[in-house]
Amino acid sequence: MYNFKNDYSEGTHPNILNKLIETNLVQQLGYGEDEYAIQAKDILKNKINNPQATIHFLSGGTQTNLIVISFLLRPHEAVISAKTGHISANETGAIEATGHKVITVETADGKLNPVAIERALQEYALKPHVVKPRMVYISNSTEIGTIYLKKELEDLAACCLSHNLLLFLDGARLGHALMAQDNDLTLADVAKLTDVFYIGGTKNGALLGEAVIFKDPHLAEDFDYVLKQRGAMLAKGRVLAIQFLELFKEDLYFELADHANKMAMKIASTVKAKGFSFLTNSTTNQIFPILPKNIITKLNENYLFFVWKEIDEDNAAIRLITSWATDEQYVDAFINDLKKL
Hints:
globular, Aspartate Aminotransferase, domain 1, four-stranded antiparallel β-sheet, 2 domains, alpha/beta, 13 strands, 17% strand, single chain, Aspartate Aminotransferase, domain 2
């Protein structure tokens, strides 16, 4: 059984393992003050063209979302998210558990736009009897594989600025978004247009880890206190820093994401050639083909994937995810099996 359920089934890229072994007995300061953290942060600041940015390394996406959102919001403030957003659909109420409401918006493509933001603001305008929207949360790529184009992100940023809203971008799959064939954003664009975002390592070649980047260091004041209080400041912070150093010193991060996307697009091409449609127009490593249920049953004999959404009595959308380590021979095997059905 080959696993197309997620993009974190494998461990980590060999370069990272080799670097961890090579540096294993080199003594370093703890809690993110090691030389690898300094080097990795310098590289990232250069990539985003912002030497003043504040950067911290955390271990996972849900942890990062919870800590960043609860840190930036006051007790009466809320965050706006697409209904499909990870903080709404896949984090066990983590944000609500910190006392902050997630205001959800229905979207067809998993993306927010100024019209949706304006609608949410109008719905929560009865101050002080309702929570105050203060943050907009987006994902790139989204939870359903779509991406933000530069104009879309610019429009969102302008909307947030005009309404004094913070813009937070979940970059768990940011590499895949930036390497999508139709993408026109750069990493520097993302850093410029958001108040805070993170670069996901867990789903793109790292053992674990997310790099949180605040554009304005004043916004990140005392964030380190919160990290420590929340149990997110690792004594052996070097383990996280080394991974981002290896991923970004020669752009390995983008090469790995590109591979994952290409494997997904190879499958998507066959799906289209067979005359099947998709739930969303994804150009990243997550695709959602709509297939007859009898074909889904046959494919499930050899491949693991999620049945994402029932379309009708005879058809359903499945989610296929490829990764930095997806072996092309299994992609070809899946394609050949699909062609036979």
